[in-house]
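ok so for the tutorial part 2 we go from a plain amino acid sequence to predicted structure tokens. step 1 is just haveing the sequence, like this:
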Amino acid sequence: MQLKINEIFYSIQGETSYAGLPTVFIRTTACNLRCTYCDTKYSYYEGEYMSFEKILEIVKGYGAEYICITGGEPLLQKDIHKLIHILCDAGYKVSLETSGSKSIKEVDPRVKVILDVKTPNSGAANSFLLENIDFSSETTEYKFVICDQEDLDWSENFCRQHDLSKKFTVLFSPSHGQVTEQWLAERILQKKLKVRLHLQQHKYIWLPTTRGV
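step 2 — the prediction. this is what the tokens look like for a chain of 213 residues:
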């Protein structure tokens, strides 16, 4: 059994509530969206098919406890569910980063799912499947990348409409180079939003354009 993999690397998790933890990242190839702020456009097409055995061998070699499945869009490859199941059975703590444009219904319940809800100025507005809210668990995290005031207002309304902050961890992240961390932090405080300010730690440790971190 094989998956098309863009890269596998070992780094510090820069996002989600797992931020700061040494993590092995498995980045799959292909994405159905074209977000304006995407920093991994190379994952749209680059990659090679790897057997499950090869993937597991590489992962094991790093000796990490945490695994992050990311993309691209991992859920475009149906066999990703089988790999995730194997990783969970092996005792790894697994997180899955997905846009929410594909159903998470079949995702192993042991996985921490990160749903990156696309805002109006992401370039992929209205791509989120609302049914994914019903398939979410208490460990699911919702991420919103904020590009401007319109995105902030829209995200606030989306969270309120679906009562996300009472049920899940909600992350508001400033779009790199579009709004500052201070701008977003101040507005979260002014509006008394029940969300977590979410910064991409890896872009502060390394250069924002550095690949494989």
